[in-house]
Every structure is written in C-alpha cells, then in structure tokens.
Amino acid sequence: MNVGLYGGSFDPIHRGHVAPILEAKSAAGLDRVIYLPTARPPHKESRRLAPAEHRFAMVELALSDHPELEVSRFEMGVEGPSYTVETLEHFRAQRPSDRHHLLIGADSFLTLDRWYRFRDLPSLARLVVLVRPGWELGEADDHSPWIRRLAEDPSVIWVENRRIDASSTEIRHLLSRGEPVPADWVAEPVLNYISRFGLYAECP
Predict the structure, then answer these.
(1) CA 1: distance to chain centroid?
(2) Contact indicator for 189, 64 with CB cutoff of 8 Å
(3) Domain locations in the chain?
(4) Max CA-CA distance within the chain?
C-alpha cells in the first residue's frame, strides 16, 4: 500500500492543509494519507500552540468527508520535540510492507538539510514535494549541495498545486480580533469547534 505521511501543527487546520494533499495523493498514486499533528514541533518551540487534543479534534473534523485521509496520535505521544525521521522509522517498523511517502511543502524541502538526521530521510520515505505554480529552486549558491542533489533525484515527486492563500497565522489573528474568517478557508465544523471551546480568543 502506498501511504503518505503529512505532519504539522495544524493550528488550526484549514483548506490549504486539505485540498493540496488531495491533489498530491492523486498525483503520487497514494492509497491514503495520514495526518500527524505534533505536540511540540522542533521549529515552533517558542510559540504557544492550542492544546494538542484540540488540534487533533479539529483535524478529525476537517477530514471527516475524506475517508482516504486519516489522522494519527503518534506524534502527540512523543515526549519532547517530534522529529520526522523518528516518525518515519516508527511507521516503517509498524507496517514494513507499506511504501511510505513524506509530503512536504517546497519551503520545507529547501530546509531539509537543517532537519534532525536529514540524510536518513530519503531512505525512509519517498519525498512528495508540494509546489505553487511558477515555483523554481533558485540559484545553486542559494542551497547546499545536498539539497541540489536531492532536487535532481528522480525518486522525488514534485506536485504543482493551485495557490491557496489560507494561513493559520492569519486565521488566528482574525479570530483573536473577533473578525470573520474568509469563506472556504476553514471547514464549518472546525469553526464551530473553535467557537465552542473559545480557541484563539487571544492570538498566541
């Protein structure tokens, strides 16, 4: 089975976390995609996130109409920061017959050489990189040799997505000011959940 793994803080989850993943699933020939809300992302330790259980519940609600997309609690149970390489090792050990794919955005791809044990990532999962129309890698001097070589690796799948301007940061700011979130940015059940629990009344 071809399985995609897609991690993030999802604080909150919005359309930009769903529509591009559905496109990537189809383009990469994936059978399902597992969302991995993280309790403590290594690159966001300085920012206070909504409680992990709330973020998990919002992802469940956002994916309820898409049975091929599911959510896992694995990274929420990790003590300390969640490292992608360890998540991949976990899923490889749990389901060794699956072919794992790591879904990441283009901006994340360009920083992979700063991730923990980054050299192990391509051997644990095939990379599926989501790019916006017109995106280019840039000049060679802008990136490390490792990134340049990886970008040219034929095993990497590049998926061009339609631009979606939804932003978790902007959504939090709007909600903290009591202003409406643009239509179609956030699924209605997720907005109802946010309202019910008073999430983002103060923007972190």
Answers:
(1) 20
(2) yes
(3) 2-165
(4) 49
For residues 55 and 62, is the Cβ–Cβ distance under 8 A? no
Give the amino acid at 164.
I
Angle at Cα 192 formed by Cα 187 and Cα 194, nearest 5°?
Answer: 95
The domain 2-165 having CATH identifier 3.40.50.620: the answer here is: yes
Task: Indicate the DSSP class of residue 95.
Answer: -
Contact 138, 41 (CB under 8 A): no
Alpha helices in the chain (DSSP H): 19-28, 52-62, 84-94, 106-109, 121-124, 145-151, 168-176, 188-197
201 vs 177: CA distance, rounded Å: 8
Q: What is the DSSP letter of 96?
A: T
Length of the chain as a residue count: 204
Q: What is the pLDDT of residues 62-101, one digit of tens each?
A: 999 999 999 999 999 877 788 999 999 999 999 999 999 9
Cα–Cα distance for residue pair 59/69, rounded to 1 Å: 10
Q: Which amino acid is at 97?
A: S
First-to-final CA distance of the chain: 39
Q: What is the per-residue pLDDT for 204?
A: 54
Helix (H/G/I), strand (E/B), else coil: 194 = helix
The span from the CA of 194 to the CA of 96, in Å, is: 37
